[in-house]
Design brief:
With 117 residues, this protein is α/β, with parallel strands linked by helices. 35% of the residues lie in helices and 25% in strands. The chain is built from 3 helices and 5 strands, in the order βαβαβββα. The chain has helices at 19-31, 46-61, 105-116, and strands at 13-16, 36-41, 66-71, 87-92, 95-101. It has a 5-stranded mixed sheet with strand order 1-3-2-4-5, sandwiched between helices. The N and C termini lie far apart (28 Å). Residues 1-117 form the Thioredoxin domain.
Length: 117
Amino acid sequence: MGSNLPVNFHGNLVNATTDKELSTVLSQAKAEKRPVVVNYGASWCHACRQMLPTFCNLSNEYPQSLFVNADIDKCEQETQDVRYTPTFRFYRNGEKVDEFYGTGAQRLRDRVWLQSS
């Protein structure tokens, strides 16, 4: 996954590289009552690399939501319960409201649309 994410025009795409960063970002979003989409993946995961461009493009299409890219190998404590990569989790008011894992660009687009409305 790495830290070289595609261009984001709204400042709503974050790369969490430590447990503290991930925890802080999620806490801030909760305080702001901002919807959050987290992409839990790994640099060695081909499917994660395949989905990353769609994830990043969606951050430009949904500026009101926060998109967080979290590497499970770097955020080990915060991602202990992630069993598959990529896993996408959707949070509202700090609570997980939806989740799916695997690939499928249209499926991700549909879920982001649903959880951002």
